[in-house]
TrEMBL record:
This is FADS6 desaturase. One of its GO terms (molecular function) is oxidoreductase activity, acting on paired donors, with oxidation of a pair of donors resulting in the reduction of molecular oxygen to two molecules of water. GO terms for biological process: fatty acid biosynthetic process. InterPro entries: FA_desaturase_dom, Fatty_acid_desaturase.
Length: 408
């Protein structure tokens, strides 16, 4: 039930430090529906979140404060779309005035630099001295996460290039060859489900990250070490949902990527036994697994969650259910701005690159605050303390559902 302009946004229950308390609601299974399954409510806007791209700009008169809202008038159900349309116009202006270097070049350069650091990392591992050896582990660990997290994430959203054909190639390279996962399922589960139904219980509520049989300390500090082992195993299970040609391609790419890493450790880094090489693979591939797991749960779980048939419109869904963390040099490089300090911007405009999300961040934050919409921000340490303190409620029990009484 939309309120008149100027009324505060309210929802049943209270939100304190990112927590929502209210009437418990049975949580969905968290299983993603098969590819092609229509949205529960038939909402094309949320289901096709990835399809946003810069369009023709309206005249200056159309993007003056309140311009779109005035066109929408007071018609029920259109105010939310008008807010998103107005914000989109502001972002489109920035995108159209940006160079190729800003739109794609910066992030491509980061990925290219990571490739160039690979030889140095493998050669450092040849040293019998501790400092060069640890430098090699650190280098390969950072490079691995830059390619598998930042590269795969940008490729899944086709944010590395404006060509869909090349976007498919980069998705196979980064997701399957580098990350040992399946491109089709990664793109579908992340782009169509998680982005289309952010914090919608049973669909995009991040329940795939929950392991309720583990206690808080094992989950937060020990289980992440198993990510390099679990990832290809999950991918193999998901291959049942793709065509046999795609499954065969994925198997070949996964094997090639893992074997190349293993072969280089034996023949370039000089490891004497297969077990020592495999242990080094595990070490480098799990170097940043802790922040990887933490970031994925910190930025959504504990924020308002909704039933599929009562979720708010897109701009409210993203502003309520997404959180930004502060900038961090290591994580910005390895994971990308869109996963750290610009996650709200990324969920609103998912086809933009990391650098462009950073560029539009002042516009998005100012607009949401001006319209009195939530713009969630918190520190890494604060979220870590929250999850350790409220682990049972947030990660084990069914999440409380947020029933919106009214939205501005």
């Amino acid at each position: 039930m939309p309120l008149e302009d100027g009324d505060p946004a309210r929802w049943r229950g209270q939100q304190v430090n990112g927590e929502v308390s209210g009437t418990p609601h049975p949580r969905g299974t968290g299983d993603t529906p098969p590819r092609g399954t229509p949205a529960p409510d038939g909402s094309r806007t949320e289901a096709m979140a990835e399809d946003w791209e810069p369009g023709p700009a309206l005249g200056d008169r159309d993007i003056t404060p309140g311009g779109v809202l005035q066109r929408a008038g007071q018609e029920p159900g259109r105010r939310e779309e008008a807010l998103m349309a107005e914000l989109s116009e502001l972002v489109q202006k920035v995108v159209k005035s940006s160079s190729w270097w800003e739109r794609h070049g910066v992030d491509i350069s980061i990925l290219a630099c990571s490739f160039l650091l690979l030889p140095a990392g493998f050669l450092c591992l040849r040293s019998a001295q501790a400092i060069p050896f640890l430098a090699g582990v650190l280098t390969l660990g950072v490079v691995h996460h830059t390619l598998t997290v930042k590269g795969s994430h940008l490729a899944s959203h086709n944010a590395l290039t404006e060509s869909k054909s090349w976007g498919k190639v980069w998705a196979i390279f980064f997701i399957e060859l580098c990350s040992a996962f399946t491109a089709e399922q990664a793109t579908y589960n992340h782009v169509k489900i998680h982005h289309g139904y952010t914090n919608v219980i049973g669909l995009g509520d991040s329940s795939t990250w929950k392991l309720p049989f583990l206690n808080r300390y094992i989950y937060m500090f020990i289980a992440p070490l198993a990510v390099p082992i679990i990832t290809p195993l999950v991918a193999l299970d998901l291959l049942r949902n793709v065509e046999w040609k795609a499954a065969l391609r994925t198997l070949c790419c996964m094997f090639l990527g893992l074997y190349c890493h293993y072969w280089l450790l034996l023949h370039v880094s000089g490891f004497q036994s297969p077990w020592s090489a495999l242990l080094c693979m595990l070490l480098t591939r799990s170097l940043l697994a802790h922040p990887y797991i933490h970031v994925n749960i910190f930025q959504h779980i504990g924020l308002p969650m909704f039933a599929a048939d009562r979720k708010p419109k897109r701009i409210h869904l993203m502003s309520l259910g997404v959180l930004n963390l502060p900038r961090n040099a290591l994580l910005d490089w390895s994971f990308g701005h869109s996963l750290i300090s610009c996650h709200v911007e990324h969920h609103l405009f998912p086809s933009l690159s990391d650098n462009m999300c950073l560029k539009i961040k002042p516009i998005v934050s100012q607009y949401l605050k001006q319209k009195k919409l939530p713009y969630n921000e918190d520190t890494y340490a604060s979220r870590l303390r929250l999850f350790l303190r409220r682990y049972e409620e947030l990660m084990v029990h069914a999440p409380p559902i947020t029933e919106l009484v009214g939205i501005q």
